Automatic annotation (TrEMBL):
Annotated ranges, domain Bacterial surface antigen (D15): 323-616
Signal peptide segment: 1-30
Keyword Membrane (UniProt): yes
Family according to the record: Belongs to the TamA family.
Organism of derivation: Vreelandella piezotolerans
Entry protein name: Translocation and assembly module subunit TamA
Keywords: Cell outer membrane, Membrane, Signal, Transmembrane, Transmembrane beta strand
Lineage: Bacteria, Pseudomonadati, Pseudomonadota, Gammaproteobacteria, Oceanospirillales
Domain TamA POTRA: 34-97
């Protein structure tokens, strides 16, 4: 017969791990009082205990007794058990004089780990980090925090039979000593069992391939949370539930790292930030009834996402004027998880329609084949172009978040550039490496973006031009303090070819504009033909350095300097430079940027730049 397990209720568990705030920073008191005789954390904690007293609700005798009682309670958690508290209600503000008396010290400290947790490193780390030792002054907070750590680790790491066989704090104020005893019995650690998937319109095998754990692995709440997150990120499902199979109506759910109830956050406050269980999950985990088998079957329940999703976006930039975007996403079109997305973009100088057919591989979030196609029309200054493109790509994302894309692209373009008209067909392979990291997403206070692409075309396979093309971008955002934000950007491009006149405008280089060299109009910097018309460059270099200072709330001031140009030779004779000042507002729809820039090679000239949208 299996051994009988006694599972505490969720209410009992909440009582175990919910602790009072034992040290709180001084705030504005409802009861104004001047405290003397103690200082530092002890004084601050007394203030925290007294701040909720409404003096008008007490008689003088009761008020004096309440102040004395709360003061004694506040000092007790720092080992002062016999303070002499004198309260003068006639003083303004109320005077509280304290003679703290002796501070209790720890005579015996006995902490024991039993069960499988004794060999589990996080539990040993919690013991090693415990700050108290015999002979130290008694402080309640570290003792209570250790108790909460053990409880949090047990639930997080699958010790569902855990309990305290001994937990005592024996204080002898008359001897100025305390004896602390804690024996934590974790019981066995549970393992992941088999998974059962219900409600999925996608092949179950594809979902199992994404698991972050194997059957028989030690149970870890973080693994369930990561799996839950990975399934949600596919876009295939409108809801995802990953939980151990329980013999109860309650459910074990996964909370995001920023979620969770206050008691759970407190119980795991000392642990590294990782996906956490919610309080409902704890209640379910503690109500498990099972036999001797410590393997927990995992139930995955999902619901299909809407098959058709639509998105409309409106924006404005001085480069292109008003712009409209319409997106049509199909996050799944068959049981293999293939997806299809279409995007329509319209502005005065440019209109384009693109589609992407995505074929996920073993790891849908990291590995896939993509078929991309689109048409694009451009009518801007000296550039007129009608372009059609088809691309087949293989995409990999690595653990360091770098993305590698190998692609084969074919392009037909009917163009006129600087008065020169032509029609070309190009077929060229390319490879790209990129990575983008930001936090937070809407207005990054830290982030960077890198991209490097290499493309090659040759007449040997039927292309109308032979060329090698390289482009690279890097951008960085960093903060100093809470109010100083710096950003820097560098972009390069180069083409090696003997057929430059055959290259369409989409492959030539132009500079100038909101995201290039401010002070100059959009793509107005490039070599010109004998008639003075833009013809594009074989090389390009642009750079930006910007400093932003928070003015108030979501408003920032900015100053910047940009330099760059597009040119034909390997190195420009000089770079166009613009500098200016601007304003940033972090609006609900994204950052709004307003800049006034002066081009250095034109006297008394200024240009306004206005744009809406993220920087990366």
């Amino acid at each position: 017969m299996g051994r009988q397990r006694h599972w505490p209720s969720a209410k009992q568990m909440a009582c175990v791990v919910t602790l009072p705030l034992l040290s709180v920073a001084t705030s504005t008191w409802a009861l104004e009082a001047a405290i003397s005789g103690v200082s530092g954390q002890v004084s601050d904690n007394i203030g925290a205990y007294l701040e909720t007293i409404d003096a008008e609700q007490y008689t003088d005798t009761r008020l004096e007794g309440e102040i004395r009682q709360r003061t004694q309670e506040a000092m007790r958690v720092y080992g002062y058990y016999e303070p002499d508290v004198t309260v003068d209600l006639n003083a303004t503000p109320i005077s509280i004089s304290i003679e703290p008396g002796p501070q209790v010290t720890i005579e015996v400290l006995d902490i024991t780990l039993n069960g499988d947790a004794n060999d589990d490193p996080p539990f040993q780390e919690a013991l090693d980090d415990f700050p108290l030792k015999e002979g130290d002054p008694l402080r309640h907070a570290p003792w209570d925090n250790l108790r909460s750590q053990f409880a949090g680790l047990a639930i997080e790491r699958g010790y569902f039979d855990w309990g305290f066989s001994d937990r005592r704090m024996e204080v002898r104020p008359y001897l100025e000593s305390a004896r602390l005893y804690m024996t934590f019995d974790s019981g066995p650690r549970y393992q992941f069992g088999e998974t059962l998937i219900t409600g999925s319109h996608i092949q179950p095998e594809r979902l199992r391939e994404m698991q972050t754990f194997e059957t028989g692995d030690p149970y870890l709440a973080e693994s369930l949370a990561r799996y839950n997150q990975r399934l949600a990120e596919t876009g295939w499902f409108s809801s995802v539930s990953v939980r151990p199979r329980l013999e109860t109506a309650q459910e074990l759910t996964i909370a995001p790292p920023s979620g969770g109830s206050p008691w759970w956050n407190e119980a795991t406050a000392s642990q590294p930030q990782r996906p956490r269980l919610s309080s409902a999950a704890l209640a379910s985990a503690l109500s498990i009834h099972s036999h001797n088998d410590t393997r927990l079957p995992i139930d995955i329940n999902v619901e299909p996402a809407d098959r058709h999703q639509f998105e409309v976006g409106v924006g404005f930039a001085t480069d292109v004027g008003p712009r409209l975007r319409f997106g049509w996403q199909q996050p799944w079109i068959n049981r293999f998880g293939h997806s299809l997305n279409h995007d329509l973009y319209v502005s005065a100088p440019e209109q384009r329609f693109t589609g992407v057919y995505n074929i996920p591989l073993e790891d849908p979030l990291r590995d896939s084949y993509r078929l991309q196609y689109g048409v694009r029309n451009v009518d801007d200054s000296d550039t007129q172009s009608l372009e059609g493109t088809v691309e087949v790509a293989r995409r990999w994302e690595f653990d360091n978040r770098w993305v590698q894309t190998l692609y084969f692209r074919t392009t037909y373009e009917d163009f006129t550039q600087g008065g020169q008209a032509d029609e070309v067909w190009l077929f060229y392979p390319g490879i790209q490496w990129s990575r983008t990291r930001t936090r937070p997403q809407r207005f990054p206070l830290w982030g960077d973006r890198q991209q490097l692409s290499i493309e090659y075309s040759d007449r040997a396979w039927g292309s109308d031009a032979r060329f090698t093309r390289l482009t690279g971008d890097t951008e960085w955002i960093r903060m100093i303090g809470n109010d100083n934000r710096f950003s820097a950007r560098l972009s390069i491009g180069a083409i090696e070819t003997d057929d430059f006149d055959k290259l369409p405008p989409s492959l030539r280089f132009f500079a100038g504009g909101d995201r290039s060299v401010r002070g100059y109009s959009y793509e107005s910097l490039s070599p010109r033909n004998p008639e003075g018309r833009l013809r594009g460059g074989q090389q390009m270099l642009t750079s930006t350095l910007e400093y932003q200072r928070r003015v108030t709330g979501d408003w920032w001031g900015a100053t910047f300097i940009d330099a760059g140009d597009a040119f034909d030779n390997w190195g420009p004779n000089d770079l166009k430079t613009g500098a200016g000042v601007g304003v940033r507002w972090i609006s609900p729809v994204g950052p709004i940027r307003f800049d006034i820039a002066h081009p250095f090679d034109v006297d008394d000239a200024f240009r306004v730049h206005f744009s809406i949208g993220p920087e990366f």
